[in-house]
Amino acid sequence: MDFKKIVCENFKTEAMTSDELYASLMPTQDCKNGDVCLPCFRFAKALRKSPAAIAEDFKDQVNTGGAVEKCEVAGGYLNFFLNKAYITRAVLDECAQKGDTYAPLSRLNKTICIDYSSINIAKPFHIGHLLTTVIGGSLYRVYKYLGYDVVGINHLGDWGTQFGKLIVAYKKWGDDEDIEKRKVRALLDLYVRFHKEAEKDESLNDEGRYWFKQIEDGNPEALAIFEKFKEITLKEVAKVYDKLGVKFDSYAGESFYNDKMQPIIDELQNKGLLTESEGAKVVDLEEWGMPPCLIVKKDGATLYATRDLAAAKYRHDTYDFDKCLYVVAYQQNLHFKQVFKVLELLGYDWADRLVHVPFGMVSLEGSTLSTREGKVVFLDDVLDTAVAKVGDVMEQKQGKRDEETAKKVGVGAVIFYALSSARIKDLVFSYDKALSFEGETGPYLQYAHARCRSVIAKAGEVKGKFSAGALDSAEAYEVVKLLNAFDQTVREAAEKYEPSVISHYLITLAKAYNKFYIDNRIVTDDNDVTFTRLALTKAVAAALKNGLKLILIDAVDKM
To answer: What's the predicted TM-score (pTM) here?
Structure first.
């Protein structure tokens, strides 16, 4: 329900249009001041009265006694109190219609492309990839729910001299049996060994460049080894994506754009945007306070920017997106500003639809990550450890393990820990904090949902009718208003590209219901009271379940 719209329908004034009134209304910060308020300060100059006097005049123009129960003047504010019984019944009816599993909202015929995760071939899927993967995966579900057509893109890091180096390492020290057994971990060991050996023998770097050139030139042996590494990596990361509930519609990586870069370079040249700088070709961006965007190095090699320019054009031509999001760490802020500006200079009117969604760095209790040195924390290991720890807790408290529940709670705890703070903040992952059943954590939300389901299961089928008195309390009404805010919360998360908005909402809802639950018996001797409080409990359970789903977490019915 739109509370502001209800007020507009019951407030007719010549001082402003209905649209102006709607835009001026605000939700109150304190429930003691009603549900919606109208700040009257902005009208003082035109009406030549004090804000308080204007509020008194407006008060007489409000139709009260129906959906708007009453309105009160408080200083320069006019506060509107909606009819709690009317709102409660309407919201619970709508929740009942939504059911246990919310269907997506009306289809918008708009497309959102989301570039996220973007793992590197033959390198570990480590904890540093956690934020981009779960932020992008959550936004994918958020936009789907809001009715968008969504294209999830994993822009694979599958190009560069490092693959030539890996081929050298493989040919010198590779063991097919070990690679078959340990997969990417074996490839990581080869990569680390190459760099250690290259410190003693610099000619190895020349060999690495030679073999990457062989990949570029289509050498069958080089391509066969490279494709083998790619297949091994994708099979391994697929297991992690499956655990996280993340999906992609495209795995078009850097190599995919090799034949699409020259047209961009030619267009830059033809439009007079390319200049030479120390033998390299650049786009001068000094006028916009940025260093030049390097397009082609002096040896003729292309760069990330070249590929990102080609990728942006390809995505627009292929998907005709309304927005294209890049969920990439904040260290790339300048890179994307440069790329977006170059596309704008090329005259592409869709350049302003490209959005960089930055996030902070991730470490495990202060650990630093370095692929070259082999100092990595595999994300798969983090997830498995979390699941094992939850299983241990279950065994201690219940005397048995439920592996499926442990998996949902353990993986959910990791995801929620990553999505519970603003994405721009650096994240130091702590098992103890993430897995706590107290405080604002994933397990706390899982438990809140499981408790609702337990109450519903124990109550069984109850026949009764809606009783306004059963929910006639500030605690109950707070829960109702939060239930009503579900869709608006999801829209806010989409507008801000911020899944933590949903995380905070779910915590607030769980706490509000727990407060109501403590003060009110759900199952009573009065069938109408039981029926009504169960309706509220079912609505909360559904909101928690569907909200958790939007942040990649599978709710559990028992804990």
So the answer is: 0.93
